[in-house]
Amino acid sequence: MPYIPNSDEDRKKMLDKIGLNTTADLFTPIPQNLRLDKPPELLPALSEPELTRHLEQLSAADKEGGLSFVGGGIYNHYIPKVIWTLVMRPEFATAYTPYQAEVAQGTLQAIYEFQTHLCRLTGMDVANASMYDGATAMTEAAMLAINQTRRQKIVVSATVSPLYREVMKTMLSGRDFEIVTLPAKDGVTDPAAYDQDIDDKTACLITASPNFFGCLEEVEKAEEAIHAVGGLLITIFDPISLGILKTPAEYNADIAVGEGQSLGLPPNFGGPLLGLFTCRQKYVRKLPGRLVGRTLDVDGKSGFVLTLQTREQHIRRDKATSNICTNEALCATAATMYMSLMGKQGLPRVAELSAQRAHYLAAKIDGLEGFSVWSQAPFFKEFVVETPVPPKQIIAAMNKDGIAAGIDLNRFYSNLDHHLLVAATETISYEDCDQMVRSLAKSTSSKSMTEVVI
Question: Considering the entire predicted model, what is its pTM?
């Protein structure tokens, strides 16, 4: 490919097209204090031992015993050590591409087991080999609904992750689709909006339970509303929650998607993630991505192979049902090992402990002067706290104690300027919860606020 530089005139045309004046305007979404006004001062070249020592010194400077109550879609669950010990074996980490089945039986079997576990967990008929993340899985689900119903309208609840909705808006920006957002009320979808915004032009209704606020939705009402007009119900699930909550199949969902990071993947600064995608059998030929099937060879022995969709389907441009032709196979392998190790007893126990810790913490915070739990809706492992001061001040103050307090919801919802999203999993002890409450109380003291302002 030849290198073709852009001229000043080319750059001006591109900026004019997107309504900007200068290249610097591209960085407007990045806070000013995070931008560099000059090149960074880099260290001189170091040898490997010197670099290792430098990195160890930087690591030692981090606060020990830090606690994180940050959720918002990525959670800190315990990961048994055996999982990544096995996952990083070369048989998995450098496995051959599964398109050539005769030399990729190990990879294909691992993906098949992943699909099997996911179908058992959700109660759905079919699962694919995974997607990039929960957001792209949701968008692909909407595309499947559009292809199936031949309708152009997508209805999504405001309680679905704003990050997911932004990804969907970006991925579908070049298509002539209508995206309608249902309003929220008390942390859940306003039930009155179902009758107002869902009609016979609606391809699908997208709802999440637990939703972005951690609340459990009344999915039965959503299912009744969308199926009454012949549309598809897409539910977004937390895989850990399915240890104790109803499955998407029990809600009569047509497509169920989710983020699989909780299944054996560390938070790791936000990635890599793992998109989960399941659906009813009748939509299997419109399923995006890879699908592994089990068959018999000429000798009657079991074998595994990519099925229903050939590689060429994904490069047929406008005729393809999806342009996703890959998956997070290594992450899916880790998730398969996690689900296998936890089993029918372990997964419900993780879910129970997470719910217990979150409800204990919510009750303690609700008793603090000036604080209250925002929604009265039932929740799983995450909840919203109304705060007496803007959450960003609390977050900054608690950072001094080595505690990540949660997420300032004003970042995503302009009307929630005193609302903090807090999560707790089985990795958080009751003592950790008490420490969080003490630090939270201290963070709003006049002395602490003065230090933050200064």
Answer: 0.86
